[in-house]
Amino acid sequence: MSSSNEISRLLRFNPGDKVVDVDPRATPGFDGKKADGAEVQSERSARLAELQELLYANHKARGDHRSILLVLQGMDAAGKGGIVKHVVGAVNPMGVRYTAFGKPTEEELAHHYLWRIRKALPPTGHIGVFDRSHYEDVLIVRVHNLVPPDVWEPRYDEINAFERELVAGGTTVVKVAMFISLDEQKQQLLERLDDPTKHWKYNPGDVDERKLWPKYQEAYQAMLDRTSTEYAPWHVVPCDRRWYSRLAVTELLIEALERLDLSWPPADFDIEAERRRLLET
Ligand code: AMP
Ligand code: MG
C-alpha cells in the first residue's frame, strides 16, 4: 500500500478532473485484494486511534486549540454509515463529535443554512464528523430547485469563506466525496430490501433520486470545481469496494493528523517526587 501522503495526493480532486471519469471500482494506492485490505485496516485503525488520542491529549494538557473536521458527502448507499461505524468507530468516542444532517427542520429552515452547521462544529481537540453537510445546500437543493439559482449560486463562495475561517481557527477540514456507481447502488439497495435488518435504512425516495443521477453528477462536478480549495481540498474516494473506501478515509485522517506534528505532552510535575509521594501513601 502507498503511504498516507501518497493516497491523499492520489485522491485529491484537481481542477479539470471530471466526475464522469471517476471509476468507483478503483483502489488508488492499494494493489492488494479485500483480504489484504482487512489486515492493513486493523493496523491503520490502531494508528488512527493513537493519533486521535494525541490530539485529545494535547488539547487537555497543553491547550492545543486544533481540531479535525471530516466531511462525508455521497449518494445514498455510498457507505457513509460504514465509514462512521468502521473508521470513526475505531477511535475513542470521547474525542469525537458526530452529526448527521438530514432534511432541515422547520427551525433550521428559518435560519441561514450554515446555522445548524456552525452549531455542530467540533470542539478543540476533537474530530468532528459530518455525515452529509453544508454541501447538501448546493447538491439536493440545486438538483430539486428547493431554492432558486440566485440563492444557491452564491453559496459556493460563501462556503469557501466559511471554511477559510474554520481553517484559520485551527480546524483541518478533510472533505471526502464518496463515489458509488449506479449499478453498485442498485445492488446495495436490493440488499436493503432483502434483509429485514436493513429495512430501516431503505427509503423509497432513493429510487426516485436514481433517475436524477445525471443532475447529481452535474451538481457534484460544480461542487468539486468551485469548493476544492488549497486550504480545504476535496478528496474523491471510489466506494464500490467498501473495504477500500474505509481504508482510504482512514489514510486521509491519518495524513491530516500527522500534519499536526503532535507529540505526547510532557509531565508538568516532578515524576520522581510524585513516585516517592505515592509510594508513601
Ligand atoms: P439519510 O442521510 O439517508 O438519512 O437522508 C437524509 C436526507 O436529507 C437526504 O436525502 C439528504 O439529501 C436530505 N438533506 C440533507 N440536508 C438537506 C438540506 N439542506 N436540504 C434538503 N434536504 C437535505
Ligand atoms: Mg438514506
TrEMBL record:
Domain of life: Bacteria
SUPFAM superfamilies (UniProt xref): P-loop containing nucleoside triphosphate hydrolases (SSF52540)
Keyword Chloroplast: no
GO MF term (any one): kinase activity
Family matches, as InterPro entries: P-loop_NTPase, PPK2-rel_1, PPK2-related
UniProt domain Polyphosphate kinase-2-related: residue ranges: 44-259
Keyword line: Kinase, Transferase
Gene3D superfamilies reported for this sequence: P-loop containing nucleotide triphosphate hydrolases (3.40.50.300)
GO BP, one annotated term: polyphosphate metabolic process
Keyword Transferase part of the UniProt annotation: yes
Pfam families according to UniProt: PPK2
Protein name per its UniProtKB record: Polyphosphate kinase
Organism of derivation: Mycolicibacterium pulveris (Mycobacterium pulveris)
